[in-house]
Specification:
Blueprint: H1 13-21, H2 24-28, H3 41-54, E1 58-59, H4 61-75, H5 83-100, E2 110-111, H6 113-128, H7 140-143, H8 149-167, E3 178-182, H9 188-201, E4 210-214, H10 215-218, H11 225-236, E5 241-245, H12 252-265, E6 275-280, H13 282-291, H14 293-296, E7 301-305, H15 310-323, H16 331-345, H17 353-371, H18 383-397, H19 405-410, E8 416-420, E9 426-430, H20 434-439, H21 444-448, E10 452-453, H22 460-463, H23 467-486, H24 496-602, E11 611-614, E12 617-620, E13 626-628, H25 629-634
Parallel strand pairs: 1-2, 3-6, 3-7, 4-5, 5-6
Antiparallel strand pairs: 8-9, 9-10, 11-12, 12-13
Length: 639
């Protein structure tokens, strides 16, 4: 019955492929497929020039450059319409020219840079809501941070490359994707959050939109869901930046699914306008790249955020004081900060700028407590305000089982050495030869005479010191004095057999210390791995729980939106019909008014009467003058 019917379907590539893939029988019914590729910038330029030539407009060189730049920016945005957008750009450029020459008639019909730029800005503003302000410094947010010179230099290098390519008429290169690595508190996350505004202000991106997420948020609980979540975030970020914090936290098969989806998206033309930024600690990010070799090659720009030195901490503290109008800091304060930060840098948990900011805030709190609500004439930070905070931070961060040689030597008595175990109990080392201990404070006397370690005290609780802690203490003791024992000399009168036996004993003791140290390290690593696995398991359970709640909320929201859409469908249809007719009438009226104004400027009616459309021409209000549509065309009036 329908053998003489030719069926043509059209649509977006991804949606059509999805529809045909859902039914293999349907796809096989189509014998010819036509793919319409997206327009490149040169295609846009050629089409604009063709439209201008068709309507007898000239386009100056600067306007052509503006068309190239404008189309490049519009292509990055979601909703790019290829030829439809270029046609719209041409129409708006014509309208801008008409408004420009309204009072100052131009003998040459020419579209200039101003006409195109205004049209481009209008289209950009309609799609992203705002335009970059040339008066605003794009690095304003980054400049508030410390030690960002290298980051700024790399971004400015990109901007110069883009500007040169534009000025030489070449296609602008791809921005690629960014990787931020550094220790805690170096500014990675803050810069990543500001990168969209920086690139937008430098006109490297058409929008300052940023979608912020993390590896945990991108990971779902069932196979196949993760890919959908990642693609949803990529769609939302089109034309802007997708920032993934703590990207190294992709675990298991679902994490691998997320990485595979990202790798595919980074080379897909569907997401060519999305800039992906990841941030994390150097070792963890490197480990992620090692497990996924194809991922690292997708990133073209790597930004390393260096650790702070003690001098950097002092400079940042001084900068904070200056910005808040405090008096110049005393030299003793700067020395305290330098010494304190040098010590803190050596401890676990050092957070660079975050710790120095905390030092500044708590120093101000100490000052406020000192003043007790009575403001002083000049805002001054005193040494004790800073010292209290430094001492508190050091006390919290210092490892509880670390003992220096000074601490050990201070515990010497005439006949014993006290070692403090982790549980707070005292274990004493008694010396067989008290005279040597009295003569020299060096612990080498204990090793040389083969000191024995006896636990003193009748209380059994004091004898139950953790074996692991005692081993650690013995190892620390051995390391603290190995230089002294290495320089031991042989006493006079010692027989060769005794001396050889002593050396063998020392070697045996050294090996025992090494074996204990290896066991201690292995125990620490295994316990650390177990703790990390437990933490990940708890995080996964919490994530699953939160994801279920979010899914239920999302389903409820979608159901409400669908119900509302069904209710509003007839109203929306009627509104669109009214709006279409209204726009057509307004456009028709605008064209007639433009022709009337053109006829008035030509001056065919000396009395200056208003012209009216009659039949195939126009007649003045007095009735004595008539101009046909063909004559109007010869005058250069668009009908």
């Amino acid at each position: 019955d329908f053998s003489d019917v030719l069926i043509i379907i059209a649509g977006y590539s991804s949606e059509i492929n999805k529809m045909l893939g859902s039914n293999s029988g349907l796809k096989s019914r189509f014998t010819t497929f036509f793919e319409f590729p997206d327009w490149e910038v040169d295609d846009c330029l050629a089409f604009f020039s063709m439209c201008a030539e068709k309507e007898r407009f000239a386009v100056d060189t600067d306007a052509l450059d503006e068309i190239r730049d404008g189309c490049q920016r519009l292509k990055q945005l979601k909703g790019w319409g290829n030829g439809r957008d270029v046609k719209h750009l041409f129409t708006q450029s014509k309208e801008n020219r008409a408004e420009r020459v309204y009072k100052d008639f131009e003998p040459v019909r020419e579209i200039v840079r101003f006409d195109v730029k205004a049209a481009v800005n209008s289209m950009l503003q309609a799609r992203i809501g705002k335009l970059s302000d040339p008066e605003v410094d794009p690095f304003a947010e980054v400049d508030k941070l410390f030690r960002m010179e290298e980051v700024k230099a790399k971004i400015l290098k990109l901007q110069k490359t883009w500007s040169l390519e534009r000025s030489e008429g070449n296609d602008t290169p791809s921005l690629g994707h960014f990787c931020f690595t550094g220790s805690p508190g170096c500014g990675k996350t803050t810069v990543a959050r500001a990168i969209a505004k920086v690139l937008f202000g430098l006109e490297l991106k058409a929008s300052d939109k940023i979608i912020e997420t993390s590896a945990i948020r991108l990971t779902a609980e069932y196979m196949g869901q993760t890919k959908k979540k990642v693609e949803r975030q990529l769609q939302d970020a089109k034309g802007g930046v997708l920032f993934i914090d703590e990207a190294y936290s992709f675990y298991g098969q679902y994490g691998q699914e997320a990485i595979d989806t990202l790798v595919a998206a980074m080379t897909s033309p569907d997401y060519a306008d999305v800039l992906i930024v990841i941030a994390g600690y150097p070792m963890e990010i490197d480990g992620m790249f090692q497990k996924n070799p194809g991922l690292k090659s997708r990133f073209s720009h790597f930004f390393g955020f260096p650790d702070w030195s003690a001098e950097d901490c002092v400079n940042f503290f001084t900068k904070c004081a200056s910005l808040e109008n405090f008096a110049k800091l005393d030299d003793s304060i700067l020395e305290t900060i330098t010494a304190g930060c040098r010590e803190l840098i050596g401890f676990d948990g050092w957070a660079n700028g975050r710790d120095v900011k905390r030092l500044w805030d708590e120093s101000k709190s100490n000052r406020a407590e000192r003043l007790d609500g009575h403001p002083e004439g000049d805002k001054v930070i005193l040494p004790r305000d800073v010292t209290m905070t430094i001492e508190s931070m050091i006390e919290v961060r210092r490892p509880k089982t670390e003992y220096s040689r000074a601490n050990l030597s201070n515990t010497f008595t005439e006949n014993s050495l006290v070692l403090v175990c982790n549980d707070g109990q005292d274990s004493h080392l008694s010396h067989q030869t008290q005279s040597k201990a009295n003569k020299s404070p060096r612990c080498s006397a204990i090793t040389e005479t083969q000191a024995t370690f006896n636990v003193k005290g009748a209380d059994t609780k004091q004898n139950e010191c953790d074996e692991q802690s005692m081993r650690s203490e013995i190892i620390n003791f051995d390391k603290s004095f190995k230089n002294d024992t290495a320089s031991d000399g042989r006493d006079k009168g010692v027989r060769d057999e005794d001396w050889e036996e002593l050396q063998l004993s020392k070697e045996s003791e050294r090996k025992r210390f090494e074996e204990i140290a290896k066991l201690d390290e292995e125990f620490r690593l295994v316990r650390q791995a177990a703790e990390e696995a437990r933490r990940r398991h708890e995080d996964e359970l919490q994530r699953i729980k939160e994801e279920k709640v979010r899914d239920e909320q999302e389903k409820a929201r979608r159901k409400a939106e669908e119900d509302e859409a069904k209710r509003r469908s007839p109203e929306d249809k009627r509104l669109r019909e009214i709006e279409d007719r209204r726009q057509r009438l307004k456009e028709k009226h605008r064209k007639k008014e433009a022709i009337k104004e053109k006829l008035r400027c030509i001056g065919l009616c000396p009395a200056g009467f208003i012209w009216h459309k009659v039949g195939r021409g126009w007649r003045c209000g007095g009735g004595s003058h008539f101009v046909s549509d063909k004559e109007l065309w010869l005058y250069g009036v668009d009908l």
